[in-house]
Amino acid sequence: MSKFYHWFNSGGRRAKHVRRNVRAPSVPLHRPQDFAAMRSAGRLAAATLAMIAPLVRQGATTRELDATCEAFIRDHGALPAPLGYRGYPFATCMSPNEVVCHGMPNDRPLAAGDLLKIDITVELGGWHGDCCRTFAVGEIDARRRLLLEVSEAALAAGVAAVRPGGRLSAIGRAVQELVEAAGFSVVRSYCGHGIGREFHQPPQVLHHLDEDRDLTLQPGMFFTIEPMVNEGAHATRCLDDGWTVVTADGGLSAQFEHTVGVTASGVEIFTLPRPA
Ligand code: MF3
Ligand code: CO
Ligand code: CO
After folding, report:
1. Which residues lie closer than 8 Å to 201 by C-beta, 6 or more apart?
2. Which of 35, 69, 127, 234 is 20 to 30 A from 121 (CA-CA)?
3. Ligand 1 pocket test: which of 4, 121, 204 has the largest number of ligand atoms within 8 Å of its C-beta?
């Protein structure tokens, strides 16, 4: 996910020094053959998560899991997009428990009750597929189970809100409503992003409602939907390593992510392990 930046300022609540009416960057519209390329990249990213799933267990380390994912991605003729991206030093992001996103693999053995977000982005044939799942290590309690279920349902609600001619803000509206109804909160400081030949490009896909940053969805737009759901407050903080983002209150966070394309009739999910 990318750090949320302000595209433009149309609201009255903004600080005076911020420029107003700066145009939102334009969103690329892709061709039918680009959908085929994204299907291949997305499928490989999803297959990487499916491959690693049974290995996420007590005693495993995220450093081992990262290495296994990297080997799988390279064996399939792709590159792990995070490696070297703005200096990020690993092939994947591994974010346990209170780590919201951009967690770095390490040598701590996973313990029963841990939640682990694994976020995979591959670059295949010049196109990117980006997806994330939250895994439970061993048995987890009912509260953690609910957090997982709500964050997976939040992604589904966001995807279901996509239609050509519809509004981008419908995604944030649907996600926020579902998450807050369950008593959890949606992270605002990081968001989904346009994707395709670039890992991160316009538009920014907010997971909360903000009609000041809206646009009309058109066939050929590619982006991720990746709500980060916190059990406590939505605020985050970045550690001194410059990458690891944690909940400000130390509460748990869960995330599921898909890469999708807007079609003439609705939405296509690219990051499914096999053709739909
Ligand atoms: N995969 C993340 C996303 O969903 C981005 C990771 S950027 C990295 O956008 F540099 F940390 F890898
Ligand atoms: Co993403
Ligand atoms: Co991702």
Report:
1. 27, 28, 193, 194, 195
2. 234
3. 121
Ligand sitting nearest the alpha carbon of 132:
3
Name the amino acid, one letter, at 148: L
Taking CA atoms only, the protein residue closest to ligand 1 atom 12 is 82
Confidence of residue 18 (pLDDT cuts 50, 70, 90): very low
13: CA distance to ligand 1 center in Å?
30
Q: Which of 181, 84, 98 is nearest to 134 (CA)?
A: 98
Measured distance CA(218)–CA(216) in Å, rounded: 6
Closest Cα partner for 76 from 118, 33, 35, 43? 43
Q: Considering only CA atoms, which of 177, 213, 212, 220 is closest in space to residue 192?
A: 213
Taking only the tens place, the pLDDT of each residue in 201-259 is: 999 999 999 999 999 999 999 999 999 999 999 999 999 999 999 999 999 999 999 99
pLDDT of residue 9: 32
Q: Could you tell me the CA-to-CA distances from 126 to 41, 129, 258 in Å, in that order?
A: 9, 10, 18
